[in-house]
Structures are given as C-alpha cells and as structure tokens.
Amino acid sequence: VGRAGAAAYKKKAEELNAVNLESAMETVQKLETKLSDFAKVHKNEIQLDPAFRAKFLQMCALLGVDILSSEKGFWGKLGMGD
Fold first, then answer.
1. Around 68, how many Cα atoms within 13 Å sit in the side-chain half-sphere?
2. Distance between CA atoms of residues 81 and 39, nearest Å
3. Are 78 and 36 a contacting pair, CB within 8 Å?
4. pLDDT by residue (tens digit) across 54-70?
5. Residue 24: burial class (beta carbons within 10 Å; 0-12, 13-18, 19+)
6. Which of 36-40, 43-47, 61-65, 69-73 has the highest mean pLDDT?
7. Torsion-angle region of residue 52: left (phi > 0), alpha (psi -120 to 50) or beta?
8. Secondary structure (3-state) at 65
9. Helix (H, G, I), strand (E, B) or coil at 26
10. How far apart are CA 68 and CA 47, in angstroms?
C-alpha cells in the first residue's frame, strides 16, 4: 500500500473512531437519563427502603456511576442531596 493508500486508511480509521466515540457518548447520555428517570420514579423507595437503596447503589456501581460524589451531582438534581 502506497502513501495515498495509507493516508486513506488512516483517514477512515479516524472517521470510525469519531463515530465510535460519538456513539459511546450518546449511550452514556441515554443511560444517565434512564437512571435519573428511574431514581425520580423510585425516589421514596430509594430514600426510605435500605434494601432497595442498596440494590440501586449496587446497580449504579456496576454501571460505573458514582451518584454519591457530589450534592450538585445526581442526588442534588433529584432534590436528595445533603
């Protein structure tokens, strides 16, 4: 493969990486929205039921979401911050 071919491959790889990154960011945004919606619907259970809260926190941890990191973050948006 000559220089032109290598440049074309490099350009295509960069395009695919950009698409993959955009797709991943969209997925994260959708996940955040769904998690927030779930928390809003189940706000009382999360606050009042220790077992439910533990399962919710476990689910968040498995997804890599640290909702306890800041009252301005996830909980604060739901009116449940410190």
1. 8
2. 13
3. yes
4. 999 888 888 777 766 64
5. exposed
6. 43-47
7. alpha
8. coil
9. helix
10. 13
Question: 2: alpha, beta or left, given left = phi > 0 and alpha = psi -120 to 50?
Answer: beta
Whole-number pLDDT of residue 73: 62
54 with 19: CB under 8 angstroms?
A: no
Give Cα 33 distance to the centre of its chain: 8
Q: What is the DSSP letter of 63?
A: T
Residue 17 and residue 10 in contact, taking contact as beta carbons nearer than 8 Å: no
Residue type, 36: S
CB 24 within 8 A of CB 16: no
The CA distance from 39 to 36, in Å, is 5
Looking at this protein, which amino acid is placed at residue 40? K
- 19's tokens: 């698409």
